[in-house]
Automatic annotation (TrEMBL):
EC number: 2.10.1.1
Family membership: Belongs to the MoeA family.
Transmembrane segments: none
Source organism, top-level taxon: Bacteria
Enzyme class: transferase
Pathways per UniProt: Cofactor biosynthesis; molybdopterin biosynthesis
Keyword Ion transport attached: no
Cofactor(s) listed: Mg(2+)
Keywords, alphabetical: Magnesium, Metal-binding, Molybdenum, Molybdenum cofactor biosynthesis, Transferase
Domain MoaB/Mog, chain residue ranges per copy: 197-334
Protein name (database record): Molybdopterin molybdenumtransferase
Amino acid sequence: MRPASPPTGAGAIRRTVEEHLAVVLSAVTPVPSATVPLGDAIGRTLAAPVLARVDVPLFDNSAMDGYAARHEDVAAADAAHPVTVRIVADIPAGSSVDPSLGAGEAARIMTGAPVPTAATVVIPVEDTHGGFAHSQTSAIVLAAPRSEGAHIRRRGEDVRAGAEVAPAGIVVGALQATAFAASGVDRVDVRRRPRVAVISTGSELAPPGGVFARGQIPESNSILLAASCREAGADLVSVTTVTDEDAAFDAAFTHAVDDLGADLVVTSGGVSAGAYEVVRSVLSDRIDFVSVAMQPGEPQAFGRVGDALVFGLPGNPVSVAMSFEAFVRPALLALQGRSDLQRPTMRLPAATGWRTRQGRRQFLPARIDRADPTGWTVRPATAGGSGSHLAAGLAQAEAYAVVPEDVATVSAGDLVDVVLLS
Ligand SMILES: Nc1nc2c(c(=O)[nH]1)N[C@H]1C(S)=C(S)[C@@H](COP(=O)(O)OP(=O)(O)OC[C@H]3O[C@@H](n4cnc5c(N)ncnc54)[C@H](O)[C@@H]3O)O[C@H]1N2
Ligand code: MOO
């Protein structure tokens, strides 16, 4: 432990949020990819487009349980003038038969079964007299199909073999994986999960469930960072808490980078102006310590050490949460080759007014009032507003508001940019 050098005040590098994010993203090289079975691809990012291997649907098939017939034979049917067709085949799903149909002939067919080449319509069983029990040899059609092709699902109408089902850069979820399977694809090329090490620093930190001596507080930042990194697609290679001793932090950091091969190390605390800023003390020669025009989250450290991206976030819990959103999450997504690095933003009226720190972009944990589905409003998650120490208030947050640097006060009714967290 030694007194730290230059604080975030005079002489420090100053950046806007955009400038700092640009520096971060310019340091990112995506992690390697591998081809894996669909089940292992969930939550990972496509490294290459997925192309359909087969037509979807694979063949013309029936959308209904009923009868495959020739349109001209049944086009005049109605309840007053029923048309009787002769059943010459039975086609359950999975059948490969392709019966020919002469004039007045039809095949009984089930949903998903291949439509005979000779058929041009499917008549749902509801539009016939008596149902399947009475249809072993003939069926009485009571209603004409609406048009030729009725109730036939055409080969390739969803996607053609060779066409793109999904582009590179999107995350594979349940819907994507099922679409790939439906397209005859069972393995996809995805980025591996970035390896992340989380290091909380602070001699005041104690396990959250214990008894706290005077001066001690529950350690919570590592919980936030580990969960947030996992949600962003990372694997945690280590999650540790160290004291404000240089040697303790140095050992944890070196282990993460050299032994565990972390792609990204994120630390909390020890970056600002105090006398025991352990992250600054150990890493100031290797990464940049900067002042970013945001609140909370003003003191930030970032750089590359070996192959690892290193983020030194300020220790206050709300600062950690908002710095993660502003810089670490986009970097984690960029490491995975994700094409969209930002969460969607919506613009909502403020339900109440609050103050902001002019000259700094405010990142405010927020709640959304959804009582009126056509008129959502946003309010601070905590009564205390944007205090970076208001850790318990994070439990109420489902979003965060982003207020521009030139705004001093948000008034009720003002439109505010809101980023949903889930
Ligand atoms: N003279 C100045 N003092 C401070 C400045 C400044 O510019 N000049 N900046 C303030 C701002 S803004 C922030 S943010 C903090 C950041 O300081 P550090 O990154 O050095 O963080 P610490 O001092 O280590 O901790 C700050 C705060 O957060 C609590 N903390 C730390 N780690 C955890 C954890 N893992 N779990 C829960 N809580 C944690 C810690 O106890 C402190 O209360 O500096 C201001 N000061
Ligand atoms: O910038 Mo600090 O992060 O206000 O709390």
